[in-house]
Specification:
about 350 residues; mainly alpha; 2 domains; 14 helices; globular
Length: about 350
């Protein structure tokens, strides 16, 4: 059976991820992977997942969203809340699977609710509203207190004392403590592959073509009978759900989960957007590669404390020139064509 060009491109993307996983496992088994680098693998992977999710909204749908850190926060807190509440009564594997489902579904629900008013806006207005959503969610979760005791479930925006034998689930600014460390690099890679499969198949489907037609010309799409609101909502909800899944991995990779700007603030949303832009808007594979490189690079350069951010800035500029400069695009296409002709012979 002859593979289509699209199928080959998708398989190459999966192959790159799998090859990277195998290389990391070999380095780990041979003792050539430092503990510091090993600790960066799961964060690198869940930021790659969020970059894929955001590229679906920015690159495929053509709408600028700055609220994906908020969806990540919702997925993280809802999943962590479930895991902490059932830690002593449920098997670890089943608990994490259900937490993954809960975090994904909760992020999708909020994506749908936010999408109802937000997707009627365009341009900068959409970016401002999604940014506000992310900040509101973060601040609410940083202020809420949730716990249960003999009298039942208690929720408040002020600290309270539990009666008898109770348990505080969300402790205001201190967040959720004691989340099981169920995330692993293997699980994160599997979820990344599933996310890539969902997004790439959506993009190459009939629904994906409808979504891209809306991006290119909304008026023309409406004129041929495409339900603009339906397809925009579809892309936005799937994107939010995938970001929520990344949040689940985040929450189960740390014992204390707090809704701080360091983890879910405005700068995080901008950082994810940088991954998307430098990887290529609409280029799903590029988002994964850019997120992986740009997340690990500052940590690898930490020994060069005086020049670390200078080197990082130079790398950002070089990547941007390679991806977007007209002359660089022309040279890249020229060499790609020559390579194709050589391999064809």
């Amino acid at each position: 059976m002859k593979l289509t060009k699209v199928s080959k491109r998708n398989l190459i993307t999966y192959g790159i991820v799998i090859a990277f996983y195998i290389i990391i496992q070999i380095l780990n088994l041979t003792g050539n992977l430092s503990s510091h680098m090993e600790g960066l693998l799961v964060p690198m992977t869940y930021y790659s997942i969020v970059a894929v999710a955001l590229n679906l909204t920015v690159g495929i749908l053509g709408e600028l969203s700055l609220g994906h850190a908020g969806f990540m926060c919702i997925g993280a807190f809802s999943a962590s809340l479930f895991s902490v509440a059932t830690k002593e009564t449920m098997n670890g594997g089943l608990r994490f699977f259900l937490a993954l489902v809960i975090g994904t579904v909760m992020a999708a629900i909020f994506g749908f609710l936010i999408g109802i008013p937000v997707l009627r806006l365009k341009g900068d207005y959409l970016a401002i509203v999604t940014l506000a959503f992310g900040e509101i969610i973060k601040n609410i979760l940083a202020a809420v207190y949730l716990g249960y005791d003999e009298a039942g479930l208690h929720i408040s925006f002020k600290s309270f004392v539990l009666q008898g034998e109770g348990k505080m689930l969300i402790n205001g600014a201190m967040g959720i403590q004691g989340t099981p460390s169920d995330s692993s690099f293997t699980i994160a890679i599997v979820i990344l592959l599933i996310s890539l499969f969902i997004v790439q198949n959506l993009v190459n489907s009939r629904d994906g073509r409808a979504i891209m037609s809306i991006r290119d010309n909304r008026i023309a799409s409406e004129s041929v009978g495409i339900n603009v609101v339906k397809y925009k909502m579809l892309a936005f909800v799937i994107s939010a759900a995938i970001a929520g899944t990344a949040g689940v991995l985040f929450s189960h990779n740390t014992s204390t989960l707090t809704a701080t700007s360091t983890y879910f603030g405005y700068n995080v949303s901008i950082m994810i957007l940088v991954y998307v832009v430098l990887g290529g808007i609409g280029n799903i594979r590029g988002s994964v590669i850019a997120a992986s490189i740009l997340y690990i690079l500052p940590e690898m350069l930490r020994g060069l404390s005086n020049y670390r951010m200078l080197i990082y800035s130079i790398v950002l500029i070089v990547i941007m020139l390679i991806n977007w400069a007209p002359k660089a695009i022309e040279v890249r296409e020229k060499y790609v064509t020559l390579l194709k002709r050589r391999f064809a012979k």
